[in-house]
Amino acid sequence: MPRGDKSKYTDKQERKADHIAEGYEKRGVSEEEAKRRAWATVNKDDGGGKNPGGSGRGKHTGNPAAHRGGVEGGQASASRPKAERSASAQKAAATRKRNAENQTHH
């Protein structure tokens, strides 16, 4: 199988790579480089291509690359004024409280 052949990847892995590449492009990485990084990330997560079905079916990979999230995080909330953040937090707390009260245990 020649290098760069993507035939051994599952649909899910391809969706994952597309999604990752999109995120890179949003941050101004060229399309080519974004694709390269995306596939590298999928390989890091899943250990290369897998056949759909097969023995690898239904095994969770742990998504190690996804745990890096948050290195770039926080800018969105940091760019909002404190009042807006605390209003958001209060609203969230109220929602959590309401959900807890309405919780029915099965």
Q: What is the first-to-last residue Cα distance? A: 51 Å
> Helix amount, in percent?
40-55%
Category from helices, strands and their pairing: mainly alpha
Shape: flat
Total number of strands: 0
Unreliable segments (pLDDT under 50, ≥5 consecutive)? Answer: none
Put simply, the count of helices is 4
Largest sheet: none
Radius of gyration: 20 Å
Instruction: Give the helices and strands as they follow along the chain.
Output: HHHH
Range of strand content:
under 5%
Q: What is the average of the pLDDT values?
A: 82
List the helices and strands and how they pair.
Elements: H1 11-26, H2 31-46, H3 75-78, H4 82-101
Helix pairs in contact: 1-2
Architecture overview:
- The protein is mainly α and 106 residues long.
- It has a domain of 44 residues.
- 53% of the residues lie in helices and 0% in strands.
- The chain contains four helices and no strands.
- Helix 1 packs across helix 2.
- The longest helix has 20 residues.
- The model has no long low-confidence stretch (mean pLDDT 82).
Keyword list:
mainly alpha, 106 residues, flat, single chain
Short description:
The chain has 106 residues and is mostly helical. Helix content is 53%, strand content 0%.
